[in-house]
């Protein structure tokens, strides 16, 4: 790093911005520590900008470019992905540098028109197409549905740099460091999983396809569109994407409960004791009503065991638990070992409906399922502990 310049390799720079104002990404996902919109500049005989930023940061982004080069020298603006957190600045750069050609996939061309009415000086590229910048060459690889249909990545062949778009991206602004070896990497890995579970996870099969397709590329650097640039341990993040896209959970249990009057809390405590006595030391307990479902999705993606307990409400599933199960169903999380328990007073119904959803996800449901009426008896508490123990033993043997 030289002053405000962030050089990745000679002539390749980060020119992104930090958004520390937005509190909900996509209007859904909490951003307790912001997010970065990464953009990159490659200076060769020709000059390319790779990805943009959200519209409101266009001026700051442009000033980052001005620090490095006269923007009128930009030949290409590559758009790997048309979601507006990256494409929102395209109208700005088109006004400022009308000669620069916008390069994108065929599917993105229509989106560029639909979002911004831009039709002129646009070049579409397909799988394997290349653009020479002089000494160095950009090659494009389509990775459809990671996580929109038009998505592609850009590979700078001679430097072995993969500009990966949202793939390998994380929540969290870049707090003073830009590379994985400069930052608290475990924090960003946690946020990479939350980002994956929230945004990418539903497209896990396209992710597997993309990993297969890109597996033959030699990479020194992965430069994603959010979060730190990976250069120290690229194998680690590729390995994590491989595991997450195959729905491989770590050995641990997420125990998620909802309770109105404390009866399900008492039951949950017995389940928790069972998990520990069953030999699984990693137990994370969450109140479904008081925990963002962004984090609950992350934790369900994280751990092999998921135990859910909730009362019946309006003859159905306790509403916050219903919302979580609906999100898990929507995200198509697979391959979990599951336990179920819950209370009812004048009408059952929640357990059967919860079971129906996890069956559709093809989760393995461990016995005993434990419904109880109003208040858990000593016998119920023993069954609940046995449930926790059984899930733990199954998780640890898997
Ligand atoms: Fe970072 Fe799918 O946009």
From TrEMBL:
<dbReference type="GO" id="GO:0010181">
    <property type="term" value="F:FMN binding"/>
</dbReference>
<dbReference type="InterPro" id="IPR029039">
    <property type="entry name" value="Flavoprotein-like_sf"/>
</dbReference>
<dbReference type="InterPro" id="IPR001279">
    <property type="entry name" value="Metallo-B-lactamas"/>
</dbReference>
<dbReference type="GO" id="GO:0016491">
    <property type="term" value="F:oxidoreductase activity"/>
</dbReference>
<dbReference type="GO" id="GO:0046872">
    <property type="term" value="F:metal ion binding"/>
</dbReference>
<dbReference type="GO" id="GO:0009055">
    <property type="term" value="F:electron transfer activity"/>
</dbReference>
<dbReference type="InterPro" id="IPR045761">
    <property type="entry name" value="ODP_dom"/>
</dbReference>
<dbReference type="Pfam" id="PF00258">
    <property type="entry name" value="Flavodoxin_1"/>
</dbReference>
<feature type="domain" description="Flavodoxin-like">
    <location>
        <begin position="253"/>
        <end position="392"/>
    </location>
</feature>
<dbReference type="InterPro" id="IPR016440">
    <property type="entry name" value="Rubredoxin-O_OxRdtase"/>
</dbReference>
<protein>
    <recommendedName>
        <fullName>Flavodoxin-like domain-containing protein</fullName>
    </recommendedName>
</protein>
<dbReference type="InterPro" id="IPR036866">
    <property type="entry name" value="RibonucZ/Hydroxyglut_hydro"/>
</dbReference>
<dbReference type="InterPro" id="IPR008254">
    <property type="entry name" value="Flavodoxin/NO_synth"/>
</dbReference>
<dbReference type="Pfam" id="PF19583">
    <property type="entry name" value="ODP"/>
</dbReference>
<comment type="similarity">
    <text>In the N-terminal section; belongs to the zinc metallo-hydrolase group 3 family.</text>
</comment>
């Amino acid at each position: 790093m030289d002053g405000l310049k962030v050089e990745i390799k000679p002539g390749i720079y980060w020119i992104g911005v930090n958004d520390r104002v937005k509190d909900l990404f996509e209007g859904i996902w909490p951003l307790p520590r912001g997010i970065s919109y990464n953009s990159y500049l490659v200076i060769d005989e020709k000059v390319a900008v790779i990805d943009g930023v959200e519209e409101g940061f266009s001026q700051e982004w442009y000033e980052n470019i001005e620090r490095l080069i006269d923007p009128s020298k930009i030949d290409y603006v590559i758009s790997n992905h048309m979601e507006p957190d990256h494409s929102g600045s395209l109208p700005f750069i088109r006004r400022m540098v009308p000669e620069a050609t916008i390069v994108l996939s065929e599917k993105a061309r229509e989106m560029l028109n639909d979002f911004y009415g831009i039709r002129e000086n646009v070049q579409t590229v397909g799988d394997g197409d290349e653009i020479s910048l002089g000494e160095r060459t950009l090659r494009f690889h389509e990775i459809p549905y990671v996580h929109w249909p038009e998505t592609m990545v850009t590979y700078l062949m001679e430097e072995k740099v993969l500009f990966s778009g949202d793939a390998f991206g994380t929540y969290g602004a870049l707090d003073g460091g830009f590379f994985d070896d400069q930052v608290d990497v475990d924090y960003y890995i946690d946020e990479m999983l939350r980002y994956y579970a929230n945004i990418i996870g539903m497209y896990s099969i396209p992710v597997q396809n993309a990993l297969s397709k890109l597996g033959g590329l030699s990479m020194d650097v992965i430069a994603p569109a959010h979060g730190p640039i990976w250069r120290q341990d690229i194998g680690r993040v590729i390995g994590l994407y491989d595991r997450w896209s195959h729905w491989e959970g770590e050995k641990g249990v997420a125990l998620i409960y909802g309770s109105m009057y404390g009866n399900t809390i008492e039951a949950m405590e017995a389940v928790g004791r069972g998990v520990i006595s069953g030999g699984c030391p990693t137990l994370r307990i969450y109140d479904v009503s008081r925990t963002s479902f962004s984090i609950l999705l992350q934790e369900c993606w994280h751990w092999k065991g998921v135990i859910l307990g909730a009362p019946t409400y309006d003859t159905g599933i306790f509403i916050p638990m219903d919302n979580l199960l609906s999100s898990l169903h929507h995200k198509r999380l697979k391959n979990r070992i599951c336990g179920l328990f819950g209370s009812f007073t004048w009408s059952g119904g929640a357990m059967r409906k919860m079971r129906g959803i996890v069956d559709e996800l093809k989760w393995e449901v461990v016995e005993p399922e434990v419904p109880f009426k109003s208040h858990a008896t000593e016998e119920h508490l023993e069954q609940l502990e046995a449930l926790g123990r059984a899930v733990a033993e199954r998780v640890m043997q898997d």
